[in-house]
Amino acid sequence: QVQLVESGGDLVQAGGSLRLSCAASGRAFSNYAMGWFRQAAGKEREFVSIISWSGGTTDYADSVKGRFTISRDNAKNTVYLQMNSLKPEDTAVYYCAAAASYYRRKFDYWGQGTQVTVSS
Asked: Are 2 and 109 in contact (CB under 8 A)?
């Protein structure tokens, strides 16, 4: 089992920045690829970003490419999502998740989410 707890969500003005954190406990954090997803009210959950177990490989949704950066600190069992140039359409609940394989991207463990609200 892996337990995930997100933090860092807040209300921010358009153009601002936030950094989300996801702290992991349980089974070896460094064994897992980590992802961020988001779900806006009334919409399906969507993929935001993923990082490999080593941190050496990342991927992003087109909608956030160039604005968001995913990173991880395996010594701290934490993955981060730095969000810059935020837009109102980035408003959503953000979830982190853990997957055994970066390429298969089957996410077995999920956090409870943190709310990000971007005002125009």
From this structure: yes
Let me know: does 90 contact 118? Beta carbons within 8 Å.
yes
Could you report the per-residue pLDDT of 58-90, keeping only the tens digit for each? 999 999 999 999 999 999 999 999 999 999 999
Q: Phi/psi class of residue 91: alpha, beta or left (left: φ > 0; alpha: ψ in -120 to 50)?
A: beta
- CA–CA dist 99, 16 (Å, integer): 30
Sequence-distant contacts of 68-72: CB under 8 A, at least 24 apart: 70/34, 70/36, 72/34
Give backbone dihedrals phi and psi of 82, rounded to 5 degrees, phi first. Answer: -85, 125
Measured CA to CA, the distance from residue 70 to residue 26 in angstroms comes to: 21
